[in-house]
Amino acid sequence: AGSRTNFMYIEMLLEMGFDIVFLSENFLELEPYTTELRQMGVEVLVGDWYRENWQQWIRENGRTIDYAFLHKADPAAFFLPSIRQYSSAAIIYQCHDLHYLRLQRKAEIERDETIRVEAVEYEQKESFLFSNSDVLLTFSEAEEKVIKQRFPDKPVFTVPLFFYREKASPETDFSKRHDLVFVGACAHSPNRDAVAWFCNEVLPQIQGSIPDIAINVVGAEPPGEITALQSPSIKILGRVSDEQLNTLYNSTRIMVVPLRFGAGVKGKVIEAMHNGLPLVSTSIGLEGITGVGDIYPSRDTAEEFAAELVSLYQDDDRLQVLSLRGAQFVEHNFGLNNTVERMTEVLELGKRLAAKRVEIEGFDPDMISNAAGDGGVSSSQDQLHHKLHGQQHRLDELQQKLDLREKQIEEILTSTSWKLSAPVRWIKQRLLDLKNRSSD
Description:
Blueprint: H1 2-15, E1 21-23, H2 33-40, E2 43-45, H3 48-61, E3 67-71, H4 73-86, E4 90-95, H5 99-110, H6 113-132, E5 135-138, H7 141-150, E6 156-158, E7 180-183, H8 189-207, E8 215-218, H9 224-227, E9 234-238, H10 242-251, E10 254-257, H11 267-274, E11 279-281, H12 283-286, H13 302-313, H14 316-333, H15 336-361, H16 365-374, H17 377-413, H18 418-439
């Protein structure tokens, strides 16, 4: 949802007449996305040179940057200090969700003190971002209130997560539809927990009334604990194309949103309603979307969720009514024209506030340009600091990938499937034999 949102905003800003430079957190050239952005007219800063010299690029181009549009806590905190130092750009931070709030809720569900500590760290990081940005954006009206309470002097806007050019024309004949769908990357812990909870706690209760029902789980790179749920009634589809997803939207009866923790607005909810697909959701799934509760009351226990789904699944007339109401709700609240008007207001305010900030703090692009070229001591120190920061950032990424691979290997080794794990266990035993022989 986050990547799709960023893509929608890039498209919209291009149509508004902006020249856009895209600086990614990992500096990787990922296809087909990098090529598609370039074909749209976006300058994409990727590759080893930018990984090592991104700060130099900002120094040299700072005077040409009018707006810095930052997304998500980690990359924003990484780039923001240099943007403030070497440009007079209006800094707009788009909060995809309050990370600390999501982690707090996760810690409560899982009773994990380590996650609680991580939540405190993210709260500090997000406070830094909020304090040092000119305008703050959020997708959730609930989170807008939280941010305003903590930062009453900062302008905060709720903007659409997704927005659409044309209204949907949903197919409202549910007589030929069947089964359920869940959409969300299960590597994201709220989605992983949601699928596991639904399949283990909710689905068996539903099957008592609708024995032949099945759920389609869509989301890239599902972890082992999710793929292990695969069965005739639980179809783990992984990544699918847009065409395949649209087919599911038009052939299933209900979207399920069984999130027990999380934060921000859920793209799956908006997307389902846009496509005229009725849904059953927990309160976390509906959070932050004002008015959606008038269409869909939340169901937070396994018993309530199952009962609501069984009732709705067996009622074609109600499904049709909710399909139309959902599509109309999205048309009214998540349209392209409304988003353009909102962003125009945001950008104009950001420009005025940035000008005031620069007037107070001072900014001399010529001095910065000269400092970048004369190799002064302070410039060298800054470059060293940011280079070390960048290397640490890269090490963190590699460690995360290593942890994931180790987890996947452990899942294979402990698999109950002999066909899957026997070859690996054989290799492991041969390695142990070799080790013992060398010891002898």
